Amino acid sequence: MPGASRRTVTPPSEFGVVRTTPVGRHPLLAVFPGLETVPPFRGYPAPAATRRRVVRSATVEVVRGPVWMYVAPHEVPPFAKAVGWTPVVSSTDCIVVGRSHLARSPAVTVYLDILHELFHVFQRRAGRNLWDLSKGYAGSPTELEAYGFAIAEARRLGASDRYLRDYLRVDWIDAKEHRRLVRNLGVAPR
Description:
It is a single chain. Helix content is 38%, strand content 9%. It has helices at residues 28-31, 48-57, 99-104, 107-125, 141-156, 161-167, 175-184, and strands at residues 24-27, 59-63, 69-71, 94-98. Helix 4 packs across helix 5.
């Protein structure tokens, strides 16, 4: 990440990313081998047997276009049309990832993203609404919890606040919302 920090942050050695995964739907662990062995996996909010079952049954849909990563909704969220978003919809636990993000983004970014999105899968299984943005993106309880989970792992790996500010800079929020997100997650401002 440009200007992130002098120290390179890398995912745990047991985690892999199959960057050559073709467009289409694939088992989660075929795209992200070792995900179930990384330290934060034990921290997902579900019993161990459920965590194992979810990670073995979940899928990843690799798509073309300018897509980062998201959990496929069961139905198109009400706001989608207004913002020009046509999401992949799935009745199962499916995480959508853009082909270019998977192939080219830094491994640690992809790692933190999959931790974040898999957290959303467990939230949804617990009955949470992932698409309620009534408090804005930076105030969404499900987003804050999922980012908090990924940020805790990033800090464990040695990420600086500068690195985390860069990680939290996403295309779908403006600078003011980014500052709010950073503040809400306890990351030091610039």
